[in-house]
Specification:
alpha/beta; Rossmann fold; ProC C-terminal domain-like fold; 2 domains; 8-stranded mixed sheet; 11 helices; 8 strands
Length: 273
């Protein structure tokens, strides 16, 4: 599901004004699916509240209880504090559709903290939400209806692409798309630094690396081409690309990414427990 721009009715409460909370709100406002007067963000830091109010034009409050009641409540706090945050407002959440973006925290764990029957939907978006290019993975809890899962999917589709998966895949999806922007930024920075080492100006090297990654992603997405086929198409016999690919393979780049994803999955499970 991509680019659904239906207006979202009702009030939207965001608990947590960190980077992801800001990205979600900024993306929704930019897509025009909500207006600023529908949104309230709970953020304990006064400086952060002032910054978000200035940047986003939404209502800011210091504590979670002040965003309630709200039709949809998005829990955008760190996994380490979500039990404490939810327990403090649990009774007021029973009439809300609760959406959690806390990595590793299961719907069952959140449901156990709330009144029986509270609908919970778990989502893992990523920071490209700020520019309408998020990848969000949606999973419903036992109390969430198909209609509510579709409602949350439609909300996050305003930020980019959405897929609905069984919750057992959430930790792996988080390791790929949730953490993925950091991996790709690392690759771009490495390529840019390598270009500087070979004599290119930094801004030129970064532009070359960034646009090349963007274009390659667009090519794979639009054509459905397997990545190996693309590699084979670029790596002509005896050419520069095959020499570079062999150098990367010698240094076990694929294995390094495999280990990175495995480490992220393991950490998600730790946070969830």
């Amino acid at each position: 599901m991509v680019g659904d721009t239906r207006r979202v009715e009702g009030s939207l409460g965001i608990v947590g004004g960190g980077r992801m909370g800001e990205a979600i709100v900024g993306g929704l406002l930019g897509a025009g699916v909500v207006s600023a007067d529908q949104i309230t963000i709970a953020e304990p830091s006064k400086d952060r509240r002032e910054t978000l109010a200035r940047q986003l034009g939404v209502t800011l409050v210091p504590d979670a209880s002040s965003v309630l009641p709200a039709d949809i409540v998005i829990l955008a706090v760190k996994p380490q504090v979500i039990d404490e945050v939810v327990s403090g407002v649990a009774s007021a959440l029973s009439s809300s559709l609760v959406v959690s973006i806390a990595a590793g925290v299961s719907c069952a764990r959140l449901e156990s903290l709330m009144p029986a029957g509270t609908a919970v939907v778990r989502v893992m978006p990523n920071t490209p939400a700020l520019v309408g290019e998020a990848m969000s993975v949606v999973s419903g809890g036992t109390e969430a209806t198909a209609e509510q899962i579709e409602q949350v999917s439609a909300l996050f589709s305003a930020l980019g692409s959405v897929i609905v998966l069984d919750e057992r895949y959430q930790d792996v999806a988080t390791a790929i798309s949730g953490s993925g922007p950091a991996y790709f930024a690392l690759v771009i920075d490495a390529l840019a630094r390598a270009g500087v080492r070979q004599g290119l100006p930094r801004d030129v090297a970064q532009q070359l690396a960034t646009q090349t990654m963007f274009g390659t992603a667009a090519l794979l997405q639009r054509t459905g081409m397997h990545p190996e086929k693309l590699i084979d198409g670029v790596a002509s016999p005896g050419g520069t690309t095959i020499a570079a690919v062999e150098a990367l393979e010698t240094r076990a780049v694929r294995s390094a990414f495999g280990e990175a994803v495995a480490a992220a999955v393991a950490r998600a499970k730790e946070l969830g427990s």
